């Protein structure tokens, strides 16, 4: 299959791995402590474990799993808000499937559905719009979440709702932006990340220029990476070559998908419908300035936060949950006492165990970890 088989070729992978080992062996500081490379995107985390790449890497590389799984960084208070909305009379609450099982402080959307709320799984915001057309006497709410990758389709859906004059469609906007979050990670005291694999899907929309400050201000290399095994290995090679040469640049390994300038049409739709929020709360990372968007004036009739007066309270994670430390790369998933015991993909305690892109779920499914020995 074009663009798949050639990126999973074992012979080519062995060649890239050999080169990767050689380059890391040429970096003296990698002998003192492993080079920490953060894959920002949960899709990369999933691929790294699914294809067993971590076990093939030189000992001088340590992968740190970043915050790029939107389900995983959704705070409990926002899940509680979803349930408050879903429990209102005449509401049909629509959501992507992976958000159904994220625990709120009392229940998940899946549990709310079992208790009688009309919660429906959709594959796109346009599905939610179709439900609104078919149910003019119901209030249909779409739970919009995700980074810049999914923002354009939500924006286009709101624009379409306005064109059609629909008055029973609402967006509960929880879209977030990656750049302020990366800056927050880089500003953490004791930050020890040496380089980044940049998120491929987000970059397809925003392009590569927004990352330039990481190289120029923080002196860290970033390589925008694809999701197949060879994409990831080649991107890691590009990062360590920069570290060996003392360079810090933004490079684009995923050029077959990511245009240098991003997708200008998609960004225009996003800017028409959304504006930046002052702050947005992230699970484990706290409140980060300008890291989320809300609906602009002109589209406010579709804003579920106005129509349903949600509380948006900050709710602490359970004491046993160490998602925040895992998200910041300070702990590995198996360091969490709940990992594999109280917290499994069937019974998630924290959000990192819910989505297949979550670090805990990826480790649990593919990591070959004996949880009884790991702690
Ligand atoms: S094991 Fe569960 S509770 Fe612990 S960090 Fe992972 S998702 Fe959070």
Q: Can you identify the CATH superfamily of the domain at 76-177 and 261-307? A: HypD, alpha/beta domain 2
Kindly provide the radius of gyration, computed on alpha-carbon positions and rounded to a whole number of angstroms: 21 Å
Measured as a percent range, the helix fraction is 25-40%
Beta-strand fraction estimate:
15-25%
Please mark out the parts with pLDDT under 50 across 5 or more consecutive residues, or reply none: 371-375
Outline type = globular
Q: Characterize the largest beta sheet: strand count, sense, and whether it forms a barrel.
A: 5 strands, parallel
Bound molecules: iron/sulfur cluster
Number of distinct beta strands: 13
Based on secondary structure, the structural category is alpha/beta
Strand order of the largest sheet: 2-1-7-8-9
Count of helical segments? 16
InterPro entries: Hyd_form_HypD, HypD_1, HypD_2_sf
Protein name: Hydrogenase maturation factor
GO molecular function, one term: 4 iron, 4 sulfur cluster binding
Family: Belongs to the HypD family.
